[in-house]
Amino acid sequence: MPRRSKARLDQADISTIVGMIETWNGALTWEALVERVELAVGRPFTRQALDGHASIKLAFQARKDRLRNIRASLRAGRAPDGDVPAEMTVLLKRAEALQGRVDTLEALIRAYEAKFVTWLHNARGRGISEEGLNAPLPPIDRGADVVRKVGRR
User: Fold this and answer.
1) What is the pLDDT of residues 2-17, one digit of tens each?
2) Pseudo-torsion of CA 112, 114, 117, 119, nearest 10°?
C-alpha cells in the first residue's frame, strides 16, 4: 500500500484558521479548534500541527487573552448583550473581531521585533554594517534562468 504524506496547511488555510480564531465565541480550547478546523478545511490536523504555525499560535493566545478580559469585564458589571440594541450588538461583535485582529498583529509585531534584535546582534557579531544590511538585492537575470532550463533538456 502506498504511503500517504501528511496533509500540510497552506497560507490560505492558515488565514482561514486565524480568522476563525479572531472571531471565536465561547470557550476557546485546542480540542474545539481542531474540530472546527477539520470542518472548515476538510482535513484533520492535530493540536501540535496547528500550534506549530506561529500566526495560528499567536492568534490563539491573543484571543484567549481577549476572552479572559471579556469575562473579567462581565464579572465587573458590564451590561450583557441582551441589554444592548441589536445594531449595537452587531457593532460590538465587529469591534471585538477587529480588536482580536489588532491583538494578533501586535503579538506578531513583538515576535518580529524580537527576531530583529537577534538578527541585529548576530550581524554586529559578524562585522556586518548597517549599510551592508540595507544594501539592495542584486538584480535577477531572467535570461540566464531560461538558458539553464533549456540547456538541461
Assistant:
1) 545 466 888 999 999 9
2) -60
132: three-class secondary structure by DSSP? helix
Count CB neighbours of 33 within 10 A.
21
Among residues 110, 109, 105, 133, which one has the least CA distance to residue 121? 133
| pTM value surpassing 0.90 | no
User: Is 71:117 a contact under the CB 8 Å cutoff?
Assistant: no
DSSP one-letter code for 43? S
> For residues 100 and 108, what is the distance between their CA atoms, to the nearest angstrom?
12
CA separation for the pair 151, 147 (Å, rounded): 6
Judge whether 37 and 54 are in contact, CB under 8 Å: no
Tens of pLDDT along 15-55?
999 999 988 888 899 999 999 999 988 888 999 999 999 99
